[in-house]
Structure formats: C-alpha cells, structure tokens
C-alpha cells in the first residue's frame, strides 16, 4: 500500500483527533521544511504554520498538498509524525491494518518452536554421534598413521568419553595397531 493511499485513509483520523495540537503540527511542518530532502518550501511552510487559520484547515491543506506531491512526500510526513508524535503514529488506522496478521503468512514464532521442540539434549546426542563417527572414520582410514596419537588422546579423555566407550575404542585401536 502506497503512502499516499495510507495518508488518504488516515486523513479523517488525523484531522478529527485532538491529539494533534498546534505545537506538534508546527514541528512536523518545520521538519518537512528543514530536513533533507526538503519537502516543503519556505513559503509553503509559512502557509501551513499560519496561526490565523484554524488547525483543522491547516492540517487538511497540508495533507492534501502532500498527497498531490507524491508518495515520497507522504512517506516523509509519516516519518515526521513518528518522530514528533509516536503514540499517535502507532494508533493510526493504516498502522493497525498493517499490524493485523495475514492468514496465509507463516507464523515464525510457531515455526521456530516446531523446529526446536526436541531441545538441547537431542542436539548434543546428534552432535556426539557425528563427532564419534568422524573420529572413527579418521582412525580407521588406512592412509593415516595416527593411531598412537589417537590412543593418547583417548587415554586422556575419561571426562569427555564415557568409560565403556573409551575401553571399546582403546581395544579397537590396539587391534588396529596389531594388524
């Protein structure tokens, strides 16, 4: 949805609410006038800050003027509104439409839960099996002659590898060294 359409949708809400007071409208107009890219010229800014006209008229004229200028100008208005009146910006009808969930959209929180339902124990078990298979393949490869070093590593690892698994690996390494 373009910013011009959003502004048209939000126009009644912005002009009818009493939350947009003169100070906030003046800050928005000044920001649109002074911040790069300059959205309002000096003459336009003076016109929309004229205290002789009512706030409702000035705001309505400003919003219509921005809609005529294009999408970029409307986007800058929304940015200025967010900076100067964040609570009002969050309460805009177009923001509420954007926040409503799309029924066809995937709920990432639910999807994340479904992927992680097994927990850290499952991950550690899978990692341990993969590490064990890699070590086994490395030690059984006939091209590598590191059985002596592997034996020392396995001998000093009673904390990492369980006692029964270590004994089986040590027996296998002794058999491999005899052959």
TrEMBL record:
<dbReference type="InterPro" id="IPR043574">
    <property type="entry name" value="CARD19"/>
</dbReference>
<dbReference type="Pfam" id="PF00619">
    <property type="entry name" value="CARD"/>
</dbReference>
<comment type="subunit">
    <text>Associates with BCL10 by CARD-CARD interaction.</text>
</comment>
<keyword id="KW-1015">Disulfide bond</keyword>
<keyword id="KW-0472">Membrane</keyword>
<dbReference type="GO" id="GO:0042981">
    <property type="term" value="P:regulation of apoptotic process"/>
</dbReference>
<dbReference type="InterPro" id="IPR042146">
    <property type="entry name" value="CARD_BinCARD"/>
</dbReference>
<keyword id="KW-0496">Mitochondrion</keyword>
<keyword id="KW-0256">Endoplasmic reticulum</keyword>
<feature type="transmembrane region" description="Helical">
    <location>
        <begin position="120"/>
        <end position="138"/>
    </location>
</feature>
<keyword id="KW-1133">Transmembrane helix</keyword>
<dbReference type="GO" id="GO:0005789">
    <property type="term" value="C:endoplasmic reticulum membrane"/>
</dbReference>
<keyword id="KW-0812">Transmembrane</keyword>
<protein>
    <recommendedName>
        <fullName>Caspase recruitment domain-containing protein 19</fullName>
    </recommendedName>
</protein>
<dbReference type="InterPro" id="IPR011029">
    <property type="entry name" value="DEATH-like_dom_sf"/>
</dbReference>
<feature type="domain" description="CARD">
    <location>
        <begin position="38"/>
        <end position="96"/>
    </location>
</feature>
<dbReference type="GO" id="GO:0031966">
    <property type="term" value="C:mitochondrial membrane"/>
</dbReference>
<dbReference type="InterPro" id="IPR001315">
    <property type="entry name" value="CARD"/>
</dbReference>
